[in-house]
Amino acid sequence: MIRAHRIVIFIYIFFTSFFGLSQSNGIGAKTLEQLVVENHGLLMKDPDKAFYDIDDLLDRAKKEGDKRSELLLLSRRCWYLTNNDLKKAIDATKKLQLKAEEYKDLHFTATAHNHFSNIYLNSGLPKKALEEFEAVMEDMGKAGYKASKHDDCILRTNAYSAAGSAYRELNKPREAAKMILKANEDIKQLEDSEYKRLLLRINYSNLGEIYSRVDIDSAENFVHQAIKLSQEKDSTDIIHFNTSMILGYINKEKKQYAEAISHYKTAESKISYFNPSRESINSIYVNLYEIYKATDSLEQANHYLEKSQSSLLEEEQNKNRSLHKIIDDKLLEEKNYTVYVGIASAIMLLISLGIILRLYLRNRLLEKQERADEAYLRVNQPAKVQDIDAYKRLAELARTDDQAFIIAFHDQFPGFYEKLLEINPKLVESEIKFCAFLKLKLSTKEIAQVQNIEPATVKNKKNRIRKRLTIPADVELYYFFNQL
Which end of the chain has fewer CB atoms < 10 Å from its terminal CB, N or C? Predict the structure, then answer.
């Protein structure tokens, strides 16, 4: 089942990485500080524009000798790139680390380690992330470490949050919860009551998601604590969206389908207020499809099945939005508006026809590749492991969607994980797990049963994996993973 827990951690880091700017040291520094604070506000609304402005602010910070602002801006650049380009994020974080060492600022040296922790998390390397967490704690414990109470609390909160996320990726929910609860202790020391309320809402939502894996009742309790801290103005923020997602999952697990539908519908209604991930949107549609199917509401089930399947078409349409904007702007500048509207409509029609043709050809290709997959599986033996009993155990863990599957798989194929990340470091855990199924030569039907999804969705995932790993269309997918 698709889950949406990454959203909260993302928002948590976004809000907590850029507060606590130190007091200015003069008129010039105060002016720069104001610009840096304004840049933070822009990050909330337009991260791309804020990132673009950082270079000019850095130049000014260097000219004015404002080391604090310089390090803060370098850190801000690390945050943006960690969420957009991991390769560049690594280089940016190295620069922050070197500059912090040059300025003998242990706070920002620790901050650099925290950025590395999040880079490793986004790369699917939670153990490495925990090593960086230990480095953060070590730097903060050194004799020369200096930071305001506010900055110290924020960094600790970020570090515990990253560690909690790492433990969660390692399927250690109780350890993850301990980290988030430690973060809460630091949050409660903050003087800004509104900021404190915000962070506690986020963390209680985090705890709700974590405990949903081990204790549904505790999960529900934490989510309701997050809701108690909410105000009317919070009704359209991403935290409310996430609590609705978690409550939908909890009620679905309890077979309280009416309540589950209500919460998922609430989450669905919030999509237009911000831009959640495609995974989160699909989670809503898939879960509503499964609930309606379980309650024999076939018309509604088919409605949400179609919405999920249409996400590919929407993705294709998004690629053409910039072209639509260019056309619209051009039309407004011309006198003969009606004529150009006709031209634009024709272009839009051609684009739509192109999308439909592309999807048709893509489906034809998927069918051809699926037939090749089935033929390959009929004539080839299962993936080679040390013995047939080990293979059977792995296959059974996969078929039952057991949490021990990934660990057992790594024990049997120790280099597989690293080879995948060498090809594409941006692969996420769900994609790596899907690749593991292909390595074991599970059929489309078997994978669909394991993940409780439609075979058509599995075919789409196979095609997406081809693109993510740049596997040529004429190379049989199972053959590729057999050779890896």
Answer: N
Instruction: Read off the CATH number of the domain in which 456 is found.
Output: 1.10.10
Mean pLDDT of successive 10-residue stretches along the chain, which has 484 residues = 41 41 44 80 74 88 89 89 84 93 93 92 88 94 88 88 89 89 87 83 88 86 90 74 90 92 90 71 87 88 83 54 41 46 66 65 65 67 53 75 76 86 88 88 85 85 90 86 85
Pairwise CA distance, residues 460 & 285, whole Å = 16
Q: Which of 448, 447, 428, 450 is nearest to 439 (CA)?
A: 447
Inside any domain, residue 222: no
Amino acid at 7: I
Contact between residue 433 and residue 447 where contact means Cβ atoms under 8 Å apart: no
The total number of structural domains that make up the chain: 1
Structural domain of residue 470, as residue ranges?
380-483
Looking at the whole model, is its pTM more than 0.85?
no
Instruction: Give a yes or no: residue 422 inside a domain.
Output: yes
In this structure, is residue 330 part of a structural domain?
Answer: no
